[in-house]
């Protein structure tokens, strides 16, 4: 905490001691802040630059549930899904009207700088799930079970899934794998936890797959992906991610399933799409490898860098902070303060 901020907090606290709580409704405050107001709380809300809460979405939508996803699928309305790994990335995804927010284990790389997803721990995933869940008011949330947390037995998987719901505060879990995961999916779903399947390219098994390879490129390969998708559907998944599968294959699989398919690198014939937020928002340095299926919709990296460089330059040249960024003091108080200093 900066010196300025900590001393500001001290000032607010001393004001609070001398005043009784009042009931207030502040127009720009989060609803949970508007009931009981002490001057200290008002100071927090007005002065803290760290508050994560913005105004609620201007046209609040209804909470997305499993039933909403079923209804979208029935109507042929594409399901929109995006990853988020922390409060801000989930907050913006929720405001932007995503149907589903996935706390993917891709956060191992994009948020924690790890080499691949095999390194991320359950505890790390849970920390990120909790921060995403706090920001996600309307989208349906999914937490990705990390490698090693569900493959040993259906019991191990159920225990991990329960932690994701109770500690991670997400509404469902995702796990990778096809036929071989059917008993595990059955175990979790019969305990009342919705499961999102993930077949085709399963990044947690990249070592066995020989890297990040497109799946289902031959008749037998495509039949294998279909069998996996049917098996996870039969076991109770509410939807299944199809990753890195030829578009035509994904479309035919989608037509054979009764649950929605969520494509990533699987073409437009799926029932919905998912992308990693940092990829689609362009939050990475120029020159980074980008998979063929990613469309870059923004330049978050470029805009952040431009802003940070402008800030750096203005601090160096003393253009920032300008007068409008400073707090006033009554002239008399300032004169008295200057005098006091001189007399010290
Ligand atoms: O970890 C992840 O982000 C994912 C999606 C991209 C499907 O599994």
Could you characterize what this model shows?
- The chain contains 14 helices and eight strands.
- Helix 1 (3-17) packs antiparallel against helix 2 (39-47) and helix 8 packs parallel to helix 10 (219-235).
- By secondary structure, it is an alpha/beta fold.
- The protein has an eight-stranded parallel β-barrel, surrounded by seven helices.
- It binds 3-methyl-2-oxobutanoic acid.
- Main sheet strand line-up: 1-2-3-4-5-6-7-8
Low-confidence stretches: 1-44
The ligands bound in this entry are: 3-methyl-2-oxobutanoic acid
Count of individual helical segments: 14
Provide the succession of SSEs.
HHHEHEHHEHEHEHHEHEEHHH
Radius of gyration: 25 Å
Question: Helices and strands in order, then pairings?
Answer:
Blueprint (H helix, E strand, L loop, with lengths): L2 H15 L21 H9 L18 H10 L3 E5 L3 H9 L4 E4 L3 H4 L11 H14 L4 E5 L9 H13 L5 E3 L7 H9 L4 E6 L5 H4 L9 H17 L3 E5 L3 H10 L4 E4 L7 E4 L1 H4 L19 H17 L14 H13 L1
GO biological process, one term: pantothenate biosynthetic process
GO molecular function, one term: magnesium ion binding
Pathway: Cofactor biosynthesis; (R)-pantothenate biosynthesis; (R)-pantoate from 3-methyl-2-oxobutanoate: step 1/2
């Amino acid at each position: 905490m900066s010196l300025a901020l900590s001393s500001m907090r001290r000032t607010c606290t001393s004001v609070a001691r001398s005043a009784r709580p009042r009931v207030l409704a502040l127009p720009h405050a989060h609803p949970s802040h508007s009931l009981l107001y002490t001057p200290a709380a008002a100071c927090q809300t007005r002065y803290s630059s760290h508050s994560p809460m913005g105004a609620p979405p201007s046209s609040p939508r209804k909470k997305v549930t499993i039933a909403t996803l079923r209804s979208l699928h029935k109507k042929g309305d594409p399901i929109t899904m995006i990853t988020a790994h922390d409060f801000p990335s989930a907050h913006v995804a929720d405001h932007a009207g995503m149907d589903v927010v996935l706390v993917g284990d891709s956060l191992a790389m994009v948020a924690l700088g790890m080499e691949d997803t095999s390194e991320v721990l359950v505890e790390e995933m849970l920390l990120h799930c909790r921060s995403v869940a706090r920001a996600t008011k309307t989208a349906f949330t999914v937490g990705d079970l990390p490698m090693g947390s569900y493959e040993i037995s259906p019991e191990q998987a159920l225990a991990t899934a329960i932690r994701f719901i109770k500690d991670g505060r997400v509404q469902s879990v995702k796990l990778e794998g096809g036929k071989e995961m059917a008993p595990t999916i059955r175990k979790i779903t019969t305990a009342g936890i919705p499961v999102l399947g993930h077949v085709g390219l399963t990044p947690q098994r990249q070592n066995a797959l020989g890297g990040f390879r497109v799946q289902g490129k031959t008749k037998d390969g495509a039949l294998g992906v279909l069998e996996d998708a049917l098996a996870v559907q039969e076991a109770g998944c509410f939807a299944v991610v199809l990753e890195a599968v030829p578009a035509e294959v994904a479309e035919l699989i989608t037509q054979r399933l009764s649950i929605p398919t969520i494509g990533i690198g699987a073409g437009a014939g799926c029932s919905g799409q998912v992308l990693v937020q940092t990829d689609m928002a362009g939050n990475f340095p120029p020159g980074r490898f980008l998979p063929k299926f990613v469309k870059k919709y923004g330049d978050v990296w470029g805009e952040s860098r431009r802003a940070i460089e402008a800030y750096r330059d203005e601090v160096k040249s003393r253009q920032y902070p300008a007068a409008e960024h400073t707090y006033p003091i009554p002239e008399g108080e300032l004169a008295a303060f200057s005098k006091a200093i001189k007399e010290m």
